[in-house]
Amino acid sequence: MSAPVSFLQQRLPLGDLLDLRAFADVCHSFAELYRVGLKVFDEAGNKLVDVKVGNADFCGYIWSKPTGREQCIATVGRVKADELGDEPKPTVVDCFSGCRYLAQPILYEGDVLGRVVFGPFVPEELGGLPPDVANLAPDFDVKLATAFMAKIRRVSTPTAEKILKHFTDLLDVMIFTGHKNLIAARLHIEAVQESYRELQDKNRALEDSYAKLKELDRLKSNFLATMSHELRTPLTSVIGYSEMMLEGLGGPLTAEQREYLGIIMEKGENLLQLITSILDISKI
Amino acid sequence: MVQFNADTREIAVKVVYYGPALSGKTTNLQALFQKIDPKVRGRLMTLDTKDDRTLFFDMMPVFFRTRAGVKVKLKLYTVPGQVMHESTRRIVLQGTDAVAFVADSRRSESAATLAYFNNMLRNLEANGLDHRTLPIVIQMNKRDLEDARADDDHGDLLRVIQPPVVPAVAIRGEGVVETLHALLQLCYRSLDQQFSLAAEWQIPEREFIGQIFSHVDLKGTSVQPPEALLR
Questions:
Q1: What ipTM was predicted for this assembly?
Q2: First to last CA, chain B
């Protein structure tokens, strides 16, 4: 269990799987098309995308009343944090204002990566402003609020669910593609690193054998130098004494002895030359 | 190595399909993809294929929640078969919990298959995995081809270790479920021995196997129906 988790098995946050800027563009065009707002949160509750369509005036007006603001914050908290389970199904979250949100978990490989919040929209069956809203504040302008609400798309919940399903299907493909690209890129990097490590190991092995060869070469040269030097010393005596005998320093010689000594000297000189050339080679 | 997350009560298990090039690893995964209920599996991710050959690997997740509330994630991978992708193979093999070796049954492929099998044993070792204890199943694939070896002619692969051998024709989906079943059974037992799945995580073998295979189309396979397994 101490081994690091392979990147193939790692669970990645939603933000790493999507190109957030491109994803935001897709969300905007999607929300524009259906004229309903859209929010996407990751698992930790960070807002990745927030598109508002049509509800700015209405929500802004409600927000301007202290009681409205309180209740608005409560609704936002619920769409963000209500338990959604891990089934690909939408949960209805109703705002006190009569508007409605759908929240659905974003599932990938069985993991919940975050949630999509679709809305607000006005449920088709809603008659008018709920009485609670009209009584939010003494100065609450029902006519104005109703006019603002009319800017929010009115849609039946089943239709909204279908639109949301369409969005989560798209999102699933985007996440899959992102995951695939991410894995391909990481695998490339890891494979290159692995090859680099292999090359480094081979390089090290080569360097080691090179150092060993150099040392061997040095030992060989030393050996040759020492050896030829040691061989030369006795040979000098062999040649020197032969020469002395030939010059008659050791007494008179017969013709045969002279011939033999000549051969000893000649061969001795040959040998000396050979040893000298070995010495020269070892110097190289 | 299997990952346990006690906080989220999750277990992630990694299964790798290994084998020589063109032995049918991807075909195995494709057949399983067809047979496993989309509710419990993700998409089959195939990375960079060129000319129908896997350059990197394929991956398919299977997931379920046990009655004790533990989420089990099973990820099936294939490795690229071509010799040149040695490093990718090692990366994919990292920390695997079980290996299915997909062998080409044809006589003409015997030498290559054996070499590849030995290469796998080496790679397992290089990844710190012990082939004597790691759950391994050999699938003798392509049983339908003329040149296929006799049913019991796979002694050459059993010299070092003696894993179960399952015959298959992956292209027709035959033996694919049996291979996974045999492998997961070994895998469960190995994990249970190391991490007490039954005692500490309340996942008995029957449930582990049953949860997966109750979502697999078992028609025409020799795998026991999961109702019997789950009961």
A1: 0.83
A2: 30
